[in-house]
Design goal:
Elements: H1 13-26, H2 30-49, E1 61-70, E2 80-87, E3 91-97, E4 107-112, E5 121-132, E6 137-147, H3 149-159
Antiparallel strand pairs: 1-2, 1-4, 2-3, 3-6, 4-5, 5-6
Helix pairs in contact: 1-2
Length: about 160
């Protein structure tokens, strides 16, 4: 393949030294190492997309985290248990009991624990999808619309 384009970019000294160390170990040029990394990233992204356009902004992580779901707009306390099945920085998929009342585009609050974190994550969500789960459950696909900064930090650390 002909290489007829030059790309220049700025980085910090630490990243440059790490890339040079990798190039030394693999006995390749720095340019070759960077090109291979970029090619690998592009290939992975293209394989993820397949023939459909990827709609998700953030990559999802499959999990199984116990959670509580509740609506602050409800007249009576509607605290319900659930299980977070997948999560990203933008939202989650949560399994809840079939009889729990939910409406598309409505909001709910959720509290769940992330492994190795002392305090739970608290997020406000808006429902984007409702699908049938197992025998007595349904799954909600929801976007995060609000949360406190420490919750976002915990989520970011867990997903990184």
């Amino acid at each position: 393949m002909k290489k007829d384009v030059t790309i220049c970019f700025r980085t910090n000294e630490e990243l440059k030294q790490a890339l040079e160390k990798i190039a030394d170990v693999e006995r390749r040029s720095l340019s070759s190492i960077i090109e291979n990394m970029l090619r690998s990233q592009v290939k992975d992204r293209m394989e993820l997309k397949g023939t459909k356009k990827e709609r998700r902004r953030y990559q999802r992580k499959d999990v199984s985290l116990p959670a509580f779901v509740y609506s602050q707009e409800a007249k009576e306390s509607t605290l319900q248990t659930g299980i977070v099945n997948s999560i990203s920085l933008g939202g989650l998929r949560i399994s809840i009991p079939q009889d729990y009342e939910v409406i598309h585009d409505s909001e709910f609050d959720t509290i769940f624990s992330i492994p190795n974190e002392k305090t739970p994550v608290k997020m406000r969500c808006t429902i984007k999808r409702i699908t049938k789960g197992g025998d007595s459950t349904k799954e909600l696909g929801a976007d995060f619309i609000d949360g406190d900064f420490p919750s976002y930090q915990k989520l970011h650390r867990y997903l990184a």
